[in-house]
Amino acid sequence: MPQQEVEKLFHRALKAGVKLITSHSGNFGPSVPKALEKYSLFPSPGDEYTIVISHGNYMDEEDFNILKKHRVPLACTPATEAQGSMGWHLLFEPGLITALGADCHCLTSSSLMQAARTALLFSRLQKTLEYKGKGQKVDKFDQTSHDVFNKATIEAASAVGMENEIGSIAVGKRADIAIFSWDQSLAFGASASEEPVAAIVTYSEARDIEAVLVNGCFRKRDGKMVRVTKDGKDIGLDQVLKELDQSQKDIRLRRESCNTSILKGLVCSIVQPGQA
What we know:
single chain; four-stranded antiparallel β-sheet; alpha/beta; 11 helices
């Protein structure tokens, strides 16, 4: 998009009260950090909005330096980035402010702990391959379960400017809490008493979550999803799945009537300008 259009949309969003602005930056399109720097759109210390860049796998050293200069966080979603052939994740890139996220639930799990597990495994695999290429063996990995757990909780909250509201358990913060039960699966239960954080990152599944509170309200209780009320009616997971199934069918019908060649050309023009 032309610079004036980007600036117009940006300032329109800020005028509407938007506090968090995100943008992808990966193996597609021009550099987002360079564009934001050129257009002077990064927040200043007194501004009330936050920018978070997503992915960033193909960023160069200049991009890294821009993010470091403006202290702009990078949100990493390792599973999605692997599915999209975007390269190694940058969650533990030195000098960058990073946070862990879950993305594209049509392709990958929506579980943050699954994302944490994936991030840790990929980081260890990356180091192993680097050492193997040198004919060496890894004697110690750099990141721990605690490191990646923090990337999914307090550091993620800090990345979006909400560390005073969420991300950890403290008086005055929102009660966003997941409660795990140790006796739902053997591997998780056996390790939870010894090292609970490592057990959550390494072994936990949805069945191990006994309860979930969002801002103090139960969304899962006694191992079951809590029904929600919409227009005075109780709605359970069965109804949500029914509506989701119908939505998928509607999307398929609309897709069949689309000219996909035009869409492919548009995508190519964004990813590889001048080669569409």
